């Protein structure tokens, strides 16, 4: 049996060489980390859910004209993606005060922001992903001014679209993290959305109860992680009613529901 070449292993995903040049396979693990991997755990079934949720979100973003690395989902834990050069900046978009913003400024979580805030973090595990400004990004050449503008523009469009998508299913999009990559075409590159969009990198609060439906349940030892991720998938129409197993074969479950 031929073994695929592993290109990279991150905290929640593994990248393998793809079937064609310029493609990769993105494998979603059940591993969960927080606080720069000081806290580690397994959320059984998370990889399957994140693969499916991220597929759904990236497909919708694609139809809205947002360029992404997503090509297609291959199976329960893998998707085929375009190979990009990851920009070493995490772009965080915030609509409501929560998490590190609440802590840093001593503001209570839950205050709606009068305007959306975009923050940048330099991707560097040894340094614990420090927050940086546009000035640092430009000065150290992590992204060009044009690339930064493209990332900002895409982040705002993604936020507008996702806020509406989640509001439509009774979920408040509090904040989220995006990663972008350079897609090279000859000597030129353009910025496209990469990584994933899932409850791992978003804060999602139930609109009526305020219940947390995201990785904060793991970060804060609240329990019920996989049930929360399942609830997000269910509301997005990705999880048939009555399916609550943590070993999820979403394809079979959907076919059974639809009688196909
Ligand atoms: P923060 O409030 O901890 O800065 O997080 C802001 C958002 O970014 C939140 O939705 C979680 C997400 N995030 C990640 O996806 N990865 C990270 O390493 C961090 C720190 C946050």
TrEMBL record:
Its EC number is 6.3.2.6. GO terms for biological process: 'de novo' IMP biosynthetic process; cobalamin biosynthetic process. Keywords: ATP-binding, Ligase, Nucleotide-binding, Purine biosynthesis. It comes from the Bacteria. Pfam families: SAICAR_synt. InterPro entries: SAICAR_synt/ADE2_N, SAICAR_synt_PurC, SAICAR_synth, SAICAR_synthetase, SAICAR_synthetase_CS. One of its GO terms (cellular component) is cytosol. One of its GO terms (molecular function) is ATP binding. The keyword Ligase applies. It catalyses: 5-amino-1-(5-phospho-D-ribosyl)imidazole-4-carboxylate + L-aspartate + ATP = (2S)-2-[5-amino-1-(5-phospho-beta-D-ribosyl)imidazole-4-carboxamido]succinate + ADP + phosphate + 2 H(+). Signal peptide: none annotated. Pathway: Purine metabolism; IMP biosynthesis via de novo pathway; 5-amino-1-(5-phospho-D-ribosyl)imidazole-4-carboxamide from 5-amino-1-(5-phospho-D-ribosyl)imidazole-4-carboxylate: step 1/2. HAMAP family: SAICAR_synth. This is Phosphoribosylaminoimidazole-succinocarboxamide synthase. It comes from Hankyongella ginsenosidimutans.
């Amino acid at each position: 049996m031929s073994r695929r070449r592993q290109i990279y292993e991150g905290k929640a995903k593994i990248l393998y060489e793809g079937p064609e040049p310029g493609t990769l396979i993105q494998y979603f693990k059940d591993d969960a980390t927080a606080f720069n991997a000081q806290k580690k755990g397994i959320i059984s079934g998370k990889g399957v859910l994140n693969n499916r949720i991220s597929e759904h979100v990236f497909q919708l973003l694609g139809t809205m004209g947002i360029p992404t690395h997503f090509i297609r989902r291959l199976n329960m834990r893998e998707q085929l993606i375009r190979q990009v050069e990851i920009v070493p900046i995490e772009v965080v978009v915030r609509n409501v005060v929560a998490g590190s913003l609440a802590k840093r400024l001593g503001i209570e979580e839950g205050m709606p922001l009068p305007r959306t805030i975009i923050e940048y973090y330099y991707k560097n595990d040894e340094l614990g992903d420090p927050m940086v400004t546009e000035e640092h990004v430009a000065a150290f050449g992590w992204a060009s001014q044009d690339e930064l503008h493209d990332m900002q523009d895409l982040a705002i469009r993604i936020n507008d679209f996702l806020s509406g998508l989640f509001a439509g299913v009774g979920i408040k999009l509090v904040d989220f993290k995006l990663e972008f990559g350079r897609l090279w075409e000859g000597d030129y590159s353009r910025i496209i959305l990469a990584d994933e969009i899932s409850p791992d990198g978003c804060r999602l609060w139930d609109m009526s109860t305020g219940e947390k439906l995201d990785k904060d349940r793991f970060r804060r030892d609240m329990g019920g992680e996989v049930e929360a991720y399942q609830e997000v998938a269910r509301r997005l129409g990705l999880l048939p009613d009555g399916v609550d197993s943590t070993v999820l074969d979403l394809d079979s479950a959907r076919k059974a529901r639809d009688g196909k």
